[in-house]
Amino acid sequence: MDGAKTPRPPASPGKLALVVGGVAAAGIAVGLLSWNVLVEGPRRERARVEAVFGIDRAEVPAPPIETPTVDGGRFSLASARGQVVFVNFWATWCAPCREEMPSMVRLGQELERAHPGKFRMVAISVDESPEPIGEFFAGPPPQGLVVALDPDQLVTRAYYCTARGRCPDSMKFPETYIVDRSGRLVAYMIGPRDWSRPEARLFLESLIGS
Fold first, then answer.
1. Contact criterion met (CB below 8 Å) for 201 and 107
2. What is the CATH number of domain 55-208?
3. CB distance 59 to 186 below 8 Å
4. Could you tell me whether strands 66-68 and 74-76 are parallel, antiparallel, or unpaired per DSSP bridges?
5. Residues 146-163: what's their mean pLDDT?
6. Residue pair 106/195 in contact by the 8 Å Cβ criterion
7. Is the Cβ–Cβ distance between 92 and 136 less than 8 Å?
8. What are phi and psi of 149, to 5 degrees?
9. Does position 109 have pLDDT exceeding 90, yes or no?
């Protein structure tokens, strides 16, 4: 009859297998691309930031902190659970500590404004009394900075030894330790830093948002 169409023969099993295999391969390729973009990309960027900024990784429970503060109160690390805590060990007689303090304070204030309730900056001084600290700041510590006291260096030594897995021959200042939201010591930085560099904020915000 005019207009009649010849039925199309069913696809052979071999062709069906090729089609299904092609679809599966495409799905795997998309999955691998998504993995690279969503997981490997940020992982590589984090590794780059750590290398550039000189960040040493650690994965250990953070030693407790229970210390007096220069304003007459107390700081407890346990009370900051759920926040990323930036712990800096310093002294007023330490020239590199004095040099890094302004950029460190600015970073802390910026992160507190950007992530309220999720970040805390603590500067633990090994000065023997609070008087030199008041002179250094010319009054109370800047807003957003908790300044605690550790004249016997017990907390200081606990962090220096725990992060390294051994105690150093001597303790030098400054050093900075990062405690994540679950209370684990995850990173530390030996020596002073320019905290205005973008790598510092990128690293800390990756923890705040994790």
1. yes
2. 3.40.30.10
3. yes
4. antiparallel
5. 98
6. yes
7. yes
8. -120, 135
9. yes
H runs (alpha helix) in the chain = 13-35, 41-53, 95-114, 131-137, 154-164, 198-208
Residue 146, exposed/middle/buried by CB under 10 A (0-12, 13-18, 19+)? buried
- Pairing relationship of beta strands 175-179 and 84-90 according to DSSP bridges: antiparallel
Instruction: Kindly state the DSSP code that residue 5 receives in the 8-state scheme.
Output: P
- Which of 129, 110, 126 shows the shortest CA–CA distance to 118? 110
Read off the pTM: 0.80
Helix (H, G, I), strand (E, B) or coil at 189: strand
The CA distance from 70 to 148, in Å, is 6
Structural domain spans, the chain: 11-53, 55-208
Task: Using the predicted structure, report yes or no on whether residue 148 has a pLDDT greater than 70.
Answer: yes
**Which residues does residue 124 pair with via DSSP β-bridges, in sequence order?**
89, 148
- Note the pLDDT of residue 41: 64
What are the distances in angstroms from CA 121 to CA 30, 75, 97, 101, 111? 42, 11, 15, 12, 9
SS3 69: strand
C-alpha 87/C-alpha 152 separation (Å) is: 17
User: What's the CA gap between 20 and 37, in Å, rounded?
Assistant: 26
| Paired tokens of 141 | 């510590």
